[in-house]
Amino acid sequence: MDLVQASEIQMDRREFVSGLTAASAFAGLMQIAAAAEARRVALVIGNGAYRNVPTLLNPPNDAGDIAAALTRLGFSVSLMPNAGFDDMRRGLIALGRDAAGADMAVVYFAGHGMEISGENWLIPIDAELKRDTDAANEAISLQSAMLQVSNTTSLGLVILDACRNNPFAAKMNRSIATRAAPNNGLGRIEPVGNVLVAYAARDGTTAFDGDQRNSPFAAALLRNIETPGVEVTFMFRNVRDEVMEATHNEQQPFVYGSLSRRAIYLAGRPAGGAEGAAGVTPAPAEVSPARSQAPMSTAVDPALVGTWEIMVPSGRGQSRWIWQIMGDGTYSFRAEPPRSARPHEGTITAANGHWTLRALKGLSGYSDSGAYEIHDTLAMITGKLGSGAWKRSVE
């Protein structure tokens, strides 16, 4: 072997080793990125043992149970029962650091909360709040909690069971300078970006602490938060309905914020969705001749054309609703058993994630509209009729 060949072999070896090193480094970076995307963090606070006002019984229970549920959902959870001001402040700072670049970050707070001069405050157990101006030094602002969860890649979520009747308000002196009077409950907010804020009771109203282990809101949340295949905004709609039923419409939960059309799941995507539909061929669209009374429409997303079904709870058990959407802009609807919903037909438009329909036969004068998002054999639909996860029918 001459010197030239030896030199070439040595260079080849160096390039090979260098390539392996680069590939290993790249793989490591990809693993780190994947881990960051999947990372979920949460701070859970349950304040009941207030030192200067009567004790709330349920918040520590609520917080412990929610923390356990979030842990089962893959969150790294920091649980703080009966937290003072310094503990809450440090907990939020730590959460904000962990939330940067994480997939999801959640703050759950149960306890006293109040609005003063248009700003919402979460009350630590050591607060005195003799004057409204003391809030800035003795309480944690909701705005700061929202900021700590705002740097995630997917969802920042603040859940507040903090609208209970507040004894701090009754004994608090008003500031003459600001003329600020504490209001009942929490005030309306407008989150930005990928942040949602869920109130146990809508702005300006109060929530029940309850006489069971959990508050009505926490109990409904625990029944729904681990349900797989339910998009997060639909999950909170289910919670809303359960709380209103449990409180005889006296307490209405409310969610503030506006997310993109991308579906977000706390407990995993639906079976048969985009990730789970490998090898499943969608049923072919069932097309029938256009009805003479229905004007033609070309504004129907081809992905929505076909036969879809959804199971809907009713007073007599589950009923099956079947929607047949044609490419010519017409639709037909029927239910099984037939008594669960009236069959009807009409026209439909669907494009860019939004749909509208108008009944022409069976439901005189009926119209509906909403949003949709399609994942192969599954469609996430909102609207007055049939909000939920529609599956392609095998009929």
Oligomer designation: single chain
How much of the residues is beta strand, in percent? 25-35%
Q: Which strand order do you get reading across the main beta sheet?
A: 10-11-12-13-14-15-16-17
Sheet/helix structural class? alpha+beta
Topology order in helix (H) and strand (E) letters: HEHEHEEEHEHEHEHHEEEEEEEEE
Q: How many angstroms separate the termini?
A: 74 Å
Fraction of residues in helices?
25-40%
Radius of gyration: 27 Å
Q: Kindly state the number of beta strands.
A: 17
What is the number of helices? 8
Can you give the mean pLDDT? 80
Sheet having the most strands: 8 strands, antiparallel, barrel
Low-confidence stretches: 1-13, 15-37, 176-182, 273-298
Q: Which word captures the global form? A: elongated
How would you describe this structure to a colleague?
With 395 residues, this protein is α+β, with helices and mostly antiparallel strands. Helix content is 27%, strand content 26%. It contains eight helices and 17 strands. The protein has helices spanning 3-38, 59-72, 85-99, 135-138, 142-148, 167-171, 216-224, 232-246, and strands at residues 40-46, 76-81, 104-110, 113-116, 119-122, 140-141, 155-161, 195-199, 254-256, 306-314, 317-325, 330-336, 344-351, 354-361, 367-375, 378-381, 388-392. The strands form three sheets. Strands 10-11-12-13-14-15-16-17 form an eight-stranded antiparallel β-barrel. It has a six-stranded mixed beta sheet with strand order 2-1-3-7-8-9, sandwiched between helices. A three-stranded antiparallel beta sheet has the order 4-5-6. A hairpin with a 2-residue loop joins β13 and β14. α2 (59-72) packs parallel to α7 (216-224), α3 (85-99) runs parallel beside α5 and α7 (216-224) crosses α8. The relative contact order is 0.09.
